[in-house]
Specification:
By secondary structure, this protein is mostly helical. The protein is built from 25 helices and four strands. Strands 1-4 form a two-stranded antiparallel ribbon. α20 crosses α22. It is globular and about 95 Å long. The protein starts with 43 loop residues before the first helix and ends in a 16-residue tail after the last helix.
């Protein structure tokens, strides 16, 4: 999962200078979709109501968000197939089929011994009793490379660069390097978007992610491949993040939960595309090149995506914001009140919340209750990503066709996202999230004693369904717990914890060599513990979003919201 994020923003934006005059005669015939006159527009959300709640302009922008989500899925999980490994055995002078047959063993026996000789060669010259082979036979290092079985994976960089035996952990390290790019992208491009704007950050990330993806297909060795893949992850994360922020800042709060869910359907579709590419392509380099194909759909986005008017208003760039707001209204076939922006400035004293520019993490840490909430949520976000990527990247160990298992893994995400929204609405944030996380942990535990096969897939996918749905819940729950001035900062801090969990997950899969069930034990125990800790968080369903630390402390008795800005209430 590139990063999953719901933007919950109730901050209103004041203005302090006159807007650019407009020529209303240039607008196309349109209708009002707003219940107030210009004098009643006192917030940015009021402007959105007048310009079109969710019209053609928003749908056009959101299309590119969905394409970016699809790209993130393709690029994140491509290594399941480009870095996979099937059966392999030594290619060496000491192992030779003729020598094995000369020792009076059948072809079947020799083939079996050959497959068992993965990291060593056997000397067949002095051993006549086949029971001595391969356990007691004299062995030699694989000095002449390996032979690979291509019945499952036709072409992988694991085979090309011989990342087996002593170097078998390198593919997992490369996947962790990729996911660490998410962490850097989260920090760097989040700050860049806030400082220099969403649009310029989006364009930079789009161009650089396309270039770095193409370059990764030409990597000559694992070191270069890992460095370029790190850049792919960082730029792709920045691309998805900035596009998502632009789209959510152009819709009303009541629509943001749906905007936050729909794009992940496209993320799930990426699983199906990857499975088809992996099944039929015979070159891992061509595979990577084809995962870059959606970039062609993103080319028009440079012309059709605009800077966020909300961000422009915070930077007091009122003329630029006015142009884009009128563009939104025109494309949505709406007419803005002629004095809408002037009144927004004049009504500054009615702004409910004012921006606190110097809010920092210390504001959270100073209060003991918020500090406990933050620590609880940091652990939960870490576990959510840890278990999600662990189960997503471990489909090849389920004992069924790797392509079928991967498709099923993606298919369960689509109903999981839908269930996430309904569970929050009808069960509440706390009960639904805690139940889903405990369910994910129990499913992982149930998988351990089951032999590889269909039944093991069933329990593993129950776990994948539960952790996917809970991952969606935790974003909304977190945003509704922290007060407005430090909400973005708090959610961003939790997102960093999720990135750490994601980059650790591939490394945990290496522990299968120590004990086959160890990764599942770690996934299960952490999910159950995190689920139990959710019960110590306040329930926020239907509550007014907190504006101050005092509001957070009073969440248990806080008034239920009658406003549509309460997400999923």
């Amino acid at each position: 999962m590139g990063d999953r994020a719901y933007i919950i923003d109730t901050e209103f934006l004041p203005a302090t200078e006159d807007p650019r005059p407009h020529d209303e005669t240039t607008l196309k015939p349109a209708t009002y979709d707003y219940e107030y006159e210009g004098d009643d527009i006192i917030t940015y959300d009021d402007i959105l109501k007048a310009a079109g709640r969710f019209g053609r302009y928003q749908w056009r922008t959101y299309f590119f968000v969905c394409v970016a989500s699809l790209m993130s899925s393709l690029l994140t999980f491509t290594q399941v197939f480009t870095g996979g490994i099937g059966d392999f055995w030594c290619r060496g002078s000491e192992f030779d089929t003729d020598k094995c047959l000369e020792s009076n063993r059948s072809t079947t026996k020799c083939d079996k011994i050959q497959q068992l000789a993965a990291c060593t060669s056997y000397n067949f010259t002095f051993y006549e009793d086949e029971k001595q082979l391969p356990e007691y036979a004299e062995t030699y290092p694989c000095s002449n490379g390996w032979e690979f079985d291509h019945s499952v994976y036709k072409s992988t960089f694991t085979e090309e660069w011989a990342l087996v035996c002593e170097e078998s952990a390198i593919p997992n390290v490369l996947q962790s390097v990729y996911l660490s790019g998410f962490l850097v992208g989260c920090i760097v491009f989040g700050a860049m978007a806030d400082r220099w704007g969403r649009y310029i950050t989006f364009v930079v990330c789009l161009v650089m992610s396309a270039i770095s993806t193409l370059l990764s297909a030409a990597s000559p060795n694992p070191i270069v491949f890992g460095m370029i893949r790190f850049c792919v992850a960082a730029f792709t994360y920045g691309l998805v993040l900035t596009l998502f922020v632009i789209s959510t800042e152009m819709v009303l709060p009541s629509k943001r939960v749906y905007v936050g869910v729909l794009l992940w359907y496209f993320y799930g579709i990426g699983y199906f595309i990857l499975a088809v590419l992996g099944k039929y392509l015979s070159s891992w380099r061509v595979f990577i090149l084809l995962t870059a194909a959606p970039f062609t759909l993103m080319i028009p986005s440079v012309l059709y995506v605009d800077e966020s008017p909300r961000w422009l208003l915070t930077k007091e760039r009122y003329t630029d914001a006015d142009k884009i707001i009128h563009k939104i209204a025109e494309l949505n076939n709406k007419v803005l009140p002629p004095d809408y922006l002037a009144n927004l400035k004049d009504m500054k004293e009615h702004v409910k919340l004012e921006k606190e520019a110097k809010a920092s993490l210390l504001d959270v840490l100073r209060d003991p209750v918020l500090r406990l909430y933050l620590l609880n949520l940091l652990f939960n976000w870490f576990v959510q990503s840890f278990v999600y990527y662990g189960l997503s990247l471990g489909t090849s160990t389920l004992g069924v066709d790797v392509y079928i298992a991967f498709v099923i893994s993606g298919a369960v995400e689509i109903p999981a996202y839908t269930f996430s929204a309904f569970s929050m609405k009808y069960l509440g944030r706390k009960i639904s999230t805690a139940t889903l996380m405990i369910m994910a942990g129990l499913a992982c535990l149930a998988t351990i004693p089951i032999h590889p096969g269909p039944l093991r897939v069933v329990f593993a996918m129950i776990g994948k369904f539960a952790i996917t749905a809970s991952f969606g819940n935790i974003y909304v729950h977190t945003a509704e717990i922290f007060p407005t001035p430090i909400r973005t900062l708090s959610v961003g801090t939790c997102s960093v914890a999720a990135r750490v969990g994601g980059l650790i997950a591939p490394l945990i899969l290496v522990f299968e060599k120590v004990w086959a069930s160890l990764p599942l034990v770690l996934f299960a125990s952490s999910a159950i513990l995190a689920g139990l800790l959710v019960f110590f968080l306040p329930e926020t369903k239907g509550k007014l979003m907190p504006d101050t630390i005092e509001d957070v402390l009073n969440l248990k008795t806080r008034t239920r919201s009658k406003d549509t800005s309460s997400v999923g209430a």
